[in-house]
Design brief:
2 domains; about 0% strand; Growth Hormone, Chain: A; single chain; mainly alpha
Amino acid sequence: MKTAAHVPGTRTAPWRSAAFRRFVLANLISATGSAMAPLALAYAVIGEGGGAGSLGLVLAVNTVPTVAFLLVGGVLADRMSRSRILLVGNLVAAAAQGALAVIVLSGAASTASIAACGFLSGVAVAFTVPAGQGVVNQLVAAEHLQRANALVRLPSNAVRVLGPVVGGLVVALCGPGWALSWDALTFLIAALLLHGLRLDAPVTAHSALSDLRAGWAGFRSRTWLWTYTVAGMVVVAAWLAGFQMLGPVLAATLYSGARSWGLVQGAFALGLLAGALVCLWWKPYRLLAVAVCTASLLFLPLTAMGLGLPLPAVLFAALIAGVGLDVAIVAWTTAFQLHIPDAELGRAGSFNSVGERLAIPLGYLLAALAAGAWSDREVLLVCAGVIVAATVLNLCVRDVYRINRTTPKPS
């Protein structure tokens, strides 16, 4: 497989590489559509007469194929050209979103047809996520990985600040079909940009099943990797249950409702943007330990809302949590790329992603059950405590402190 060491000119700063700029631009353009898509999808379901149940069904149908096919995507990412997988995945996503836009604009949308398009989009995600995790490694030398990862996230985080606002205006003025049309177009443009990367495919003499078994053996043998995945699954479940599910409910009762919740989400998005900027200059030595610690800052807004603190305190807590999360993502991604062989990145990443995505329904289910026994504020505080407890337990793993910036990657 072609790596940064074999690509001429990649020993320079990442931004001087034309291939890297092409990859970042593809991610940025795709992000502008993806930032509008959730709002547009929700109003597309509402527009055809569906309620919370219909929207939940659509979201579930979108998530299930992603989880189901992630391991297949991980195996293919280590057997095929990753740029080719990203190209095809973006084309499939463009087709799915384009079909959804057409049926919404034509007035023929139904819960079943929207869910069918969502299923196809979920399949595309299952293949593009593992492939995308190994692309930066092939474009940038090891000493530039953290800066490159921060540069990939920086423009996308900026879009997350403005995207929902612009998406809301487009949906309000033109309808959800046009926002979905833009999402489809961005996937198509991204596919055309990714077509120019032309990364080499790895050479393998093993069967796909053998590769999957070897990938699982490698994942299981790395204590730092599977313990981080398990801890991450717990943190993601608690965060989604507290922030995404109960946050809007608390905002309606404790603050001014949608307006306040929009400010909280905006503060969190600004924190993500600031976190990417931090990673451009701060290069911590103990990458994994930093990732574990900074991700734990997600407990702050949950605690602030659970205690009923004034809105400015919640906004500040959300801002700091956003900074911490993006620093954690960049530090984790860099550690992952440095300490996993290039030939195993797809499979290792897919096992990690399966754990995090399984946390989504788990977190919502447990929060719904807990809400029957405790108040919403008490559940938020429990979620915050779970995040802290998972962090402390993960920091007790000795291997966490071995995954640093200078340890050479195994061959």
